[in-house]
Amino acid sequence: MTGGNVIAAPGVPAAAAPSRPGRLRRIARRRSTLAFLMTLPLLAVIGGLVAYPFFYAIYLSMLNKRMTRFVGLDNFAFLLTRETFQFVVWQSVIFAVSAVIAKALIGFILAHVLHALPAKGQRKWRGMLLVPWVIPPAISTLAWWWLFDPTYSAINWMLMGIGAPPIAWLGEPGWARFAVILVNVWYGAPFFMIMYLAALKSVPDQLYEAAAIDGATGWQKLRYVTVPMMKNIIAITVLFSLIVTFANFDIVRILTNGGPQDRTHIFGTYAFQVGIQSGDIPLGAAVSLFMFPILAVFAVFVLRGVTRRSKEMAG
Amino acid sequence: MSGASLTTAGAAAPAYRKVGSIRRERRWALIGAYVALAVFVLFFLTPPFHMLVTSLKSSAEIADLSGNPWVVRRPTLENYWELLQQGNYLLHFRNSVIVTLVVVAVTMVISTLAAFALARMRFWGSATLATGVFLTYLVPETLLFIPLFQIIGGLGLYNNLLAMILIYPTLTVPFCTWIMIGYFSSIPKELDEAALIDGANHFQMLWRIFIPVALPGILAATIFAFTVSWAQFLYPMAFLVSSENMVLTVGIVSDLIRGDTFQWGKIMAGALMAAAPPLLVYAFLMDYYIAGLTAGATKG
Amino acid sequence: MAQVSLRKVVKEYEGGVQAVKGINLEIADHEFVVLVGPSGCGKSTTLRMIAGLEDITAGEIAIGGTVVNDIPPRDRDIAMVFQNYALYPHMTVYENMAFGLTLRRFPKDEIRRRVENAARILDIGELLDRKPKALSGGQRQRVAMGRAIVRDPKVFLFDEPLSNLDAKLRVQMRVEIKKVHQTVRTTTVYVTHDQVEAMTLADRVVVMNQGNIEQVGTPQELYHRPATRFVAGFIGSPAMNMIPARLENSAGALRLHLPGEIVLPVPAERTQRYAPLAGREVLFGLRPEHLTEPKNLDRPNIALVEAAPEVIEPMGMETMMIFSLDGTEVTARLDPAVPVELGRKMPLAADLNQMHLIDPQSGRVL
């Protein structure tokens, strides 16, 4: 027994000791000041270049073309009556929905195919399949533009080789719509593939083994193991891609610039044409802002999915 | 095991046949997989391949409609030479490099500091701010380019590379901060406590523990910032007008298309060289590239 | 080197949960004290308050006579070893050990001298250039200790340092830690949930439960004279048998009436101590090692009882035999040579010199 006497004193009231504004507490306060200073640049970027412009956009969208007069919601009302704008809304929806469905399907298939490969070959194939995603879309779309060239189209050359008639890829509204979707799918499918592949790899093998022992067929494993385990990642990826595709600019701008007859315009390109090229800043801002409600809804769902997923990963 | 197989010897024969059929099934599945892969690799690599083929052709060969557009008969580097020797291509390349380097540096400083504070130094509103960062990442550039156009004009930065340096971080900082929060949060709390007891202050902890330990994450975030800055198209399109101030994504089109004359050979050569830096980064750092790409949905 | 004092230390988390409810503890210079208790008993919180990783809600902690409540960890001159080692993964073993000294701007050659000295004590000289990833669990644990030793602090704090090791390595490292303490003699506070670790390492053991200290004492004291029902049950493996009983006084001699019509005579020398309790319900406590096959029957206060085994656990060096008395499971510890058969009654010897009586209401050992 080296120490002094020791008493267990369960009866001591906890709050009895005076709470001193100690140095440690001061340090804690200094720490949160420091933390605030460290986030200040981030706050400046978000506040000054995202939040402020957003409210500024709302203000701008309520001015007349010369920005001399407040016109309330006139710009929005005017847009709704314009046939071109109605085309833009429709085309944006068609463009985003069909491209995302195609990307998700292709990505899902490719992820499964890759996952089935032996680990050694997987890397090489994955490397090649990701190339479209790595090239800046503004650059790769130039290649597609050239492939769709009315006179020199290398695709048409092949079509003629098998006896099919050449196609006016970018000259005919239907085909032009198809072309912009095709290029978007080409660019975005690898993203889905890699996301799904990562999710597939995170499904524990024991689950498949347990399912196999329970007598599940390959299809049933997919239905009852893979898809439920990937549900969240699928939802996040689809919603995220819906946002990005819906708000796309590069591909449509380069490939068709909205043509022919404004039939391939989506919100982004139309806002650019109206706001920057035609110089009607308020109207352009209004076009962009039309995207906001739908983007906000998607964003909230993405956030929910991500929060849930990180909870799952932690739990 | 052996005892069990002995007692079921009678059933062994049909079981064997079944094993064989599974193996055959597997082989067919694998062949199917390779066919699917080949089809998609062909689809995915056709545009870059055609880009390369065209860039190696002379204008005369491109204009010649009688030949096969998929092959080069007389390969030449003249498109590349002309691009590098005359016109503003090199200038555009330089501008892209400057903008990208500065933006990446600024982004990493801002997001590393912020992520450290948000991941480790809980303070009033930190959770809300982390959520806000993620939501900001989901704001597409097409939503805000018009007010930004006005703001840039107001600052006198129209047609100025500084505008790019000012605005690109809105696209890079939120995502980089978000994934860095994830990486920093995954560092065990005991590591900071050990550092605290070892006598480190907050900056020493960040600089000597967090940054080295989260280096893969930092690399992934850096690559992401690089990719986004290098590929940005809308902002230069809207805010840059004179050729000597342009970056690659807009410079190629503006300089090589004069009215109806498309210099396709040079466009493709320029595009290929513009695609080279991200492709090289990707080739050498594929794992970090993919980590950055997939982290957004799983970290945080 | 220094003593550590805790005076009425309270830790209350937001929401009013009290993890530590006002404890007092004096740790002498050079002493090795182990805080032991089940998870959630407040032992780790106490250690972390000594380290400065948690602030103290009320009360005082002093290290070497200085109250450290408001002193940040780096100025408390303590070193800590964590359960998961907390080695810096990007630094070599040498850099890990040198880090604390580097931050304190020690001269280079002094750092080298200290690291090499610590490496010699811990026998990790070969590993200095490796990264933690390339080390085994035991080696990592040594490095974590080395990081503490080089600092030559006033106090070593260990937070469940052996929990991540396998059983064999744990025993080995236990010996290692004891040797290191005998070499450097630094005051040590060690937290564990493992009573064997506590008993083998400690000069004194502090048993904690639900934020309070149940008992402080040497391992021997805790084993032979537990102060509370909790300590009696917590220290010793397998745990002490506690059988509900009634104490009766028949003609000046005390008798314990156990379930199953068993009546045990209380040793005469305890009559005076227990006499006031006659007629009350108590818990009769007897460790399995004091309930054996019949032996030493010539000694005083050995009582014979009969029981039929319901479970037999042969352990090699001994055999555990478990039977139940009116729903209470009782374990006896037998020589492996004794023949035992499930369900067949056999005689057992209860060494009543080692018995305890516990007040079921207050939980205090009487």
Automatic annotation (TrEMBL), chain A:
CDD domains according to UniProt: TM_PBP2 (cd06261)
Database matches in Pfam families: BPD_transp_1
Entry keywords, A to Z: Cell membrane, Membrane, Transmembrane, Transmembrane helix, Transport
UniProt topology in membrane: Multi-pass membrane protein
Subcellular location: Cell membrane
Residue ranges of every copy of the ABC transmembrane type-1 domain listed in the record: 89-302
Spans through the membrane: 33-59, 88-117, 129-148, 175-198, 233-255, 281-303
Assigned protein family: Belongs to the binding-protein-dependent transport system permease family.
Entry protein name: Sugar ABC transporter permease
UniProt organism field: Caldovatus aquaticus
From TrEMBL, chain B:
Membrane topology: Multi-pass membrane protein
UniProt cross-references to InterPro entries, sorted A to Z: BP-dep_ABC_trans_perm, MetI-like, MetI-like_sf
TM annotation in the entry: 28-46, 97-119, 126-149, 161-184, 205-227, 233-257, 269-291
Residue stretches making up the ABC transmembrane type-1 domain: 93-285
Entry-linked PROSITE patterns: ABC_TM1
Entry superkingdom: Bacteria
Protein name (record): Carbohydrate ABC transporter permease
UniProt organism field: Caldovatus aquaticus
TrEMBL record, chain C:
Designated gene of the protein: ugpC
ATP-binding keyword on record: yes
Protein name as catalogued: Sn-glycerol-3-phosphate ABC transporter ATP-binding protein UgpC
Keywords: ATP-binding, Nucleotide-binding, Transport
Keyword Cell division tagged: no
Similarity annotation: Belongs to the ABC transporter superfamily.
Gene Ontology terms, MF aspect: ATP binding
PANTHER family with a match to the protein in the record: MALTODEXTRIN IMPORT ATP-BINDING PROTEIN MSMX (PTHR43875), OSMOPROTECTIVE COMPOUNDS UPTAKE ATP-BINDING PROTEIN GGTA (PTHR43875:SF1)
NCBIfam families: PRK11650.1 (NF008653)
Organism in which the protein naturally occurs: Caldovatus aquaticus
All copies of domain ABC transporter, residue ranges: 4-235
InterPro entries named among the record's database cross-references: AAA+_ATPase, ABC_transporter-like_ATP-bd, ABC_transporter-like_CS, ABC_transpr_MalK-like, ABC_transpr_MalK/UgpC-like, Mo/tungstate-bd_C_term_dom, NA-bd_OB-fold, OB_MalK-like
